[in-house]
Amino acid sequence: MSPAELLDLLGRDFMQRALLAALLTGLAAPAIGTFIVQRRLALLGDGIGHVAVTGVALGLLTGASPTWTAVVVAVLGAVLIEVIREKGHTNGDVALALLFYGGLAGGVLISGLAGDGAAGLQVYLFGSVTSISPTEVWYTAVLALVVLTFTLGLLPQLFAVASDPEFAKVAGLRVRAYNLLVAVLAAVSVTVAMRTVGLLLVSALMVVPVATSQQLARSFRSTLLWAMVLGGVAAVGGLVVAAWLSARATVAPGPSIVLLALAMFAATWPVGVWVRRRRRLTEPFPALGTGTPGPHEVDEHPHQHGDDCGHPAVRHEDHVDYVHDGHRHAPHGEHYDEH
Ligand SMILES: [Zn+2]
Ligand SMILES: [Zn+2]
Ligand SMILES: [Zn+2]
Ligand SMILES: [Zn+2]
Q1: Structure pTM?
Q2: Which ligand is nearest to the CA of 332?
Q3: For residue 132, how far is its CA from the centre of ligand 4 (angstroms)?
Q4: Contacts with 118 (C-beta within 8 Å, 6 or more apart), sequence order
Q5: Ligand 2 centre and the CA of 24: distance in Å?
Q6: SS3 helix, strand, coil % of the chain, rounded to 5?
Q7: How many C-beta neighbours within 10 Å does residue 170 have?
Q8: % of the chain exceeding 70 in pLDDT
Q9: What is the C-alpha to C-alpha distance for residues 156 and 323, in angstroms, rounded to an integer?
Q10: Of 52, 29, 35, which is closest to residue 234 (Cα–Cα)?
């Protein structure tokens, strides 16, 4: 296919819709994925994806929009997964496995009853973004915006909970509620990504751009933002590659998107190794555990804490404390108190 033909193809209505859906997916999935990776639950999206198959099949059976039935079932599944995980049962992983296999097998069975068989599911298992309808683009946009609003709006709180739940609890954050929110948002982004990369590859778009971003970014915030950029590039780029190859063969965009994301990880890996080695050379002695913090001087804080400094703010009697480096901290005249 010549570049002119490719441009012509990309300009068509159905391709414009596909590109928009891919971009939204590429931004939303890594945004929530950053918290999931931080919590070491990289396979959570995979599990939710399996459960969502039953949701799609219920849509096919009842004639309702599979997007919405998938949202409902995926959210219920995610809440159940989170509850099982939180209980910390010894058989928790077996319970999760039963849930995942049940979701996948149940979905295939129900879609068989709906008269579509596995073929009806194909579109949702591996994605088929080029056949997405205008209404479905709207659904995708709304759901993606929900995910982005919550993840970016609650970034300091979600970060505190994901990185150090014990400490977040001490700081007065409602850890359970935030964990549940992350699970629910993960379920929503699984549904967002369903038409783009498919339920079986959903997790890749939630994890791979984050892993790539972690190679280079230092802070949590920049990891999240770079993961979104990389996810967006992979999703749009993978779709264009699939469109370009479509002249010769039928290539589903889902796999090309995931392979492009993996290629980006492979390309940045040596850079990451080099960056980490340099960091070790410039900081030969890692900071030792500080133990219980005493009151400290103003110049130990490179910034004035405030609404958007990135530290979780906790209301405490008549003032606001900011959580950082293992303690709660309140400005008081010329110095800071630890609470
Ligand atoms: Zn601060
Ligand atoms: Zn205080
Ligand atoms: Zn402090
Ligand atoms: Zn004081």
Answers
A1: 0.76
A2: 4
A3: 60
A4: 108, 111, 112
A5: 40
A6: 70, 5, 25
A7: 14
A8: 91
A9: 10
A10: 29
How far is Cα 296 from Cα 180, in angstroms, rounded to an integer?
35
Nearest in space to 192 (alpha carbons), one of 34, 54, 74, 60: 74
Q: How confident is the model at residue 112 (pLDDT cuts 50, 70, 90)?
A: confident
Lowest mean pLDDT among 6-15, 58-67, 252-261, 288-297: 288-297
Looking at all shown ligands, the one closest to residue 221's CA atom is 1
50 pLDDT band, cuts 50/70/90, is very high
**Cα 337 to ligand 4 centroid, rounded to whole Å:** 5
Find the 167 Cα to ligand 3 centroid distance in Å.
Answer: 14
| Nearest ligand (C-alpha, residue 316) | 2
| Torsion-angle region of 288 (φ positive above 0: left; ψ -120 to 50: alpha; else: beta) | beta
Rounded Cα distance, 306 and 295, in Å? 19
Ligand number nearest to the C-alpha of 318: 2
In tens, the pLDDT along 245-303 reads 887 777 788 889 999 999 999 999 988 888 878 877 766 554 444 444 455 554 556 67
pLDDT of 158-190, one tens digit each? 888 887 778 888 888 888 899 899 999 999 999
Both structure tokens of 180 = 């549940």
> ∠9-13-17 over CA atoms, to 5°?
105
Mean pLDDT over 91-103 rounds to 82
The DSSP code for 289 is: P
Which residues are within 5 Å of ligand 4 (an ion), measured at CB?
332, 337
The amino acid occupying position 137 is V
The span from the CA of 298 to the CA of 290, in Å, is 17
Span between the terminal Cα atoms of the chain, in Å: 65
Give the span between the Cα atoms of 125 and 104, in whole angstroms: 10
Read off the tokens for 337.
């108190």
- Short-list 36, 238, 31, CA closest to 146: 31
